[in-house]
Specification:
Chain B: Pfam families: PFO_beta_C, TPP_enzyme_C. Chain B: It comes from candidate division WWE3 bacterium. Chain B: One of its GO terms (molecular function) is iron-sulfur cluster binding. The structure holds two protein chains of two kinds. By secondary structure, chain A is of the alpha/beta class. Chain A contains 19 helices and 21 strands. The longest helix of chain A has 21 residues. Chain A starts with 5 loop residues before the first strand and ends with a helix. Chain B is an alpha/beta fold. Chain B has one domain: Thiamin diphosphate (ThDP)-binding fold, Pyr/PP domains (Rossmann fold, 3-Layer(aba) Sandwich). Chain B has nine helices and ten strands. Chain B has an eight-stranded mixed β-sheet, with helices on both faces. A two-stranded antiparallel sheet of chain B has the order 5-6. In chain B, strand 7, helix 6 and strand 8 form a beta-alpha-beta unit. The longest helix of chain B has 16 residues. Chain B is globular and about 70 Å long. Classes of the chains: A alpha/beta, B alpha/beta. At the A-B interface, helix 1, strand 7, helix 8, helix 9 and helix 10 of A face strand 1, strand 2, helix 2, helix 4 and helix 9 of B.
């Protein structure tokens, strides 16, 4: 296979049939064999039943997005065939349950039909119907030409804590599934996942999703307190944090609601520790009250906002980019808010760590925006690196300070912070206040204090804000502008496009006005791509720059853009020109 | 040693002359002097309402939060620094209206906080509307025909929600209020003091005279460890029948005593270091 070739395996089943765990094992099998992966999971808001699918994309080159087509479809139920029969690639196969009455009549004739008695193998060899996903995993490993020894290692690691019996049963059914392919469908085996030449010079990789990378980034940054109310799609952040709290010595607390979450985190931060919360759009609506409280009291705080489609409950398990303008505008009055947006799990890791330093330095709330695709899709990266990270607490002291004033007016707007119990007196006051913190409604004081707080944003722009990133050629026929999880799709699309480049924006507030204007000064055609109805990034650009966007490609159906769709859009523009 | 002058700020209370908040303010300062509470060992979290102004009149480190949200801020403070005495000043509207959900959950978790309710049975800072603790039929600006809602019973609510120290005090009896504040702070767990605090401007029913006339202290042999009895007494209210004192007390471990991470010392006293998350990475390879 060529370096850029991607093999896409889609597994479909009812919720509860283990699609996610099978997909993750296949992903790990691939990275241990020296390949890159990108897993995309799609499911409805249900615990049992419904239709869950996971696509594992495997390549020798970096792979950053899902594909519209599948090379192998694994159907554990009829729904999978019905919903995905039109997505087969030219040289593809269907692995399905041969004993049930799965109707394959709609499947195109060129697709290899690899029927396997999945339930029979699961029951006879593993004593449990629950193991059909492992049988299928064994089978697909064989079709891909993968290594059964590596699969067995993964089974031992995955099920080790459930006991020897479970490990044995899984290993046995995986082997049976594997054998069923080698004995019955030998000619369909692809020599693809062979851990050969590439594996020895392949640096160790890890497969993480954004929820995991945010939690890991927070732990690496010295997180001390997190209060997070469960909400899709960020719930797994709290699961990772809750699991590791005793080991790393921080506290995770599940509060009664998001109002409490943000206020608890603010209380913890006021008392002197590094604190965070996380939520999705609905929870952030509740938090908007506390968001400004952190701004007014100048309390450092990291807020992770994982977007899903609104309004109201919306599409709880799908993705969207419709919260940008809310986050930029939430809360009454003006206060300095630093708003960052990650484009993938790795950026989410790095920006989480940076967010803690920015919060301490500017003593104000930092929002890191991610979205469902980042939260729950898994990508492989070289082991995440935090060796260069230095904790910077800014102007922070626990010593007694003479004539201490918490909100002292300074040229950069940042005052010395101390904590209760240090012996220093101050009031962290939600009312407008003087330099000590006493409530004060004097016009002059109010003016100076508003200016002091807002100065911090100017300083942040000068000292910390990063320019947007340019991918592809310096100059191009068409320039794509986007943000968030669209990044992966754009990078993948660029590989199939000539004379197109991509500008990726991470800083939303402060906004890189001058840098973006300069980067786009020579752009011939600007295509803005977003997952929301009104083009919220385009609005932000219009508000802050003189840039003229030529065209926008928007979607608000909860689904992720495929690279193929971007290529189509570019071709379409070219044909009109 | 805390001296009364140490607590003085450049701001003298702006409450109305005769306001019960003045008594609460003085009683708390007396308790602070008696117990040595200061900026090295204590913090105050206040909500929004007339009570919240107290942060300006007492030189003790404080956080004045949002309406209804004093409790979550205070629980955050206490979890990361359990060596601090954490006092929550809140009103009946603040705590039981906007903050009702936080109240029941803070009780349920038994955080080691001392919660002082400035209970004037109405909203005073917004110039006199009904509160969740207003009596049925009570006439205010928002209920000119008389309040159609029944009030909460704050003591009973606290007891059934899991608070482990539940008391009622009358602001006008400062020595006794001081004593109860001290006892509440010594208790490990969520301590609630419902302080009957006459609003001299907007409440013409619950006046100092009314409370002096109709309150009495629980008997010396009253057993506060009996939960059922405590609930019975919490429902006793009316002419000559308003009990004061400690209704309920239980020795359940506080929330903070149950967190292994802070068994040896508060989180805030631990060095902040970059954690070696590398060992967690293995799971993802």
């Amino acid at each position: 296979m060529s370096k850029s070739e991607i093999i896409s395996v889609k597994i479909g089943a009812e919720a509860g049939q283990g699609v996610k765990s099978a997909g993750l094992m296949l992903a790990k099998l691939a990275i241990r064999s020296g390949y890159h992966i990108y897993n995309q999971i799609e499911y409805p808001s249900l615990i049992k039943g419904g239709h869950n699918v996971l696509q594992v994309n495997i390549s020798k080159d970096e792979v950053t997005a899902p594909r519209r087509v599948n090379d192998i479809l694994i159907a554990l139920n009829q729904d999978t065939v019905n919903k995905h029969f039109s997505e087969f690639s030219a040289d593809s196969a269907l692995i399905f349950e041969s004993d049930s009455k799965i109707d394959t009549s709609k499947v195109p004739p060129n697709v290899a039909l690899l029927g396997i008695p999945l339930s029979k193998i699961a029951k006879e060899s593993g004593n449990s119907d629950l193991l059909i996903n492992t049988v299928a995993l064994g089978a697909v490993t064989a079709v891909l030409g993968g290594n059964l020894v590596i699969l067995n290692e993964l089974i031992a690691e995955e099920f080790g804590n459930k006991g020897e019996e479970i490990v044995k049963a899984n290993a046995l059914v995986a082997e049976q599934g594997f054998k069923h392919i080698t004995e019955n469908y030998k000619k369909f085996i692809k020599g693809f996942l062979v851990p050969s030449d590439s594996v020895s010079n392949f640096v160790p990789h890890m497969a993480v999703d954004g929820n995991e990378s945010v939690a890991l980034g927070a732990i690496a940054s010295g997180l001390q307190f997190a209060a997070i109310y469960p909400m899709s799609p960020i719930s797994n952040i709290l699961a990772v944090l809750a699991e590791n709290q005793e080991k790393f010595g921080y506290i995770y607390k599940q509060p009664e609601d998001e109002l409490s979450a943000i206020n608890m985190a603010i209380g913890a931060s006021y008392a002197g520790v590094r604190a965070m919360t996380a939520t999705s759009g609905g929870g952030f609506s509740l938090m908007s009250e506390g968001f400004g409280l952190a701004g007014m009291t100048e309390t450092p705080l990291v807020i992770i906002e994982g977007m899903r489609p609104g309004p109201a409950t919306g599409l709880p398990t799908w993705s969207d980019q419709g919260d940008l303008q809310m986050i930029l505008n939430a809360h009454q009055g003006d206060f300095p808010r630093i708003v960052l947006a990650a484009g993938d799990a790795k950026e989410a890791f790095e920006l989480t760590m940076q967010a803690f330093n920015l919060a301490d330095k500017y003593q104000t709330p930092i929002v890191l925006i991610i979205d469902k695709n980042i939260c729950e899709n898994t990508q492989s990266y070289p082991l995440l690196d935090f060796s260069g990270y230095k904790i910077d607490r800014g102007k922070f002291s626990t010593q007694i300070i003479k004539e201490y004033q918490r909100y002292e007016l300074t040229p950069d707007g940042i005052s010395q912070r101390t904590i209760p119990g240090s012996g220093n007196f101050f009031i962290a006051n939600s009312d407008e206040h003087d330099q000590v913190g006493y409530s004060n409604e004097d016009a002059e004081t109010r003016t100076r204090m508003m200016e002091k707080r807002m100065t911090k944003l100017k300083v942040c722009k000068e000292q910390d804000m990063k320019k947007p990133k340019l991918y592809g050629p310096e100059s191009a026929d068409i320039t794509i502008l986007s943000w968030g999880s669209n990044k992966g799709t754009m990078l993948q699309a660029l590989k199939g496009l000539d004379d197109v480049n991509y500008v990726h924006i991470n800083w939303m507030s402060p906004f890189p006005t001058e840098a973006l204007e300069e980067m786009l000064s020579g752009a011939k055609f600007i295509l803005n791509i977003e997952c929301n109805y009104t083009g919220q990034m385009a609005r932000l650009i219009r508000e802050n720059t003189k840039i003229k966007i030529s065209e926008s490609l928007l979607r608000y159906d909860g689904r992720q853009f495929y690279p193929e769709e971007i290529i189509d859009a570019v071709n379409n523009i070219r044909s009109k020109k | 040693m805390t001296k009364i002058d140490d607590l003085k700020t450049p701001h003298f209370p702006s409450w109305c002359p005769g306001c019960g908040n003045l008594n609460i303010w003085s009683s708390f300062k007396n308790a602070a002097v008696q117990e040595g509470w200061d900026n090295g060992n204590s913090a105050i979290v206040a909500g929004i309402g007339c009570h919240g102004h107290i942060v300006n009149f007492m030189k003790m480190n404080s956080f004045e939060g949002l309406h209804g949200r004093a409790l979550p801020v205070a629980t955050g403070v206490k979890m990361v620094n359990h060596r601090l005495n954490v006092f929550v000043f809140t009103g009946d509207g603040d705590c039981f209206g906007e903050g009702g959900n936080h109240f029941i959950h803070a009780c349920r978790r038994n955080h080691d906080l001392t919660v002082l309710i400035h209970d004037n049975t109405l909203y005073a800072l917004t110039t006199g509307q009904t509160s969740p603790l207003s009596e049925h039929g009570f006439k205010t600006k928002s209920t000119p025909q008389g309040n159609p809602d029944e009030p909460f019973n704050p003591l009973a609510l606290a007891i059934i929600s899991g608070a482990t120290f539940v008391a009622r005090a009358y602001a006008g009896d400062m020595p006794k209020l001081t004593e109860i504040i001290v006892a509440a702070n010594k208790h490990k767990g969520l301590s609630l003091i419902d302080i009957l605090q006459p609003c001299v401007t907007f409440n013409k029913v619950c006046t100092h005279g009314y409370y002096r006339e109709n309150t009495y202290y629980l008997e010396p042999d009253y057993d506060p460890t009996n939960k059922q009895k405590a609930l019975d007494r919490a429902f006793e209210f009316g002419e000559k029948k308003i009990p004061l004192g400690i209704f309920y007390k239980s020795d359940k471990p506080s929330y903070e005593e149950q967190i292994p991470q802070i068994k040896d010392k508060p989180l805030v006293e631990m060095p902040l270091e970059r954690a070696s998350a590398v060992e967690l990475f293995k799971k993802y390879t």
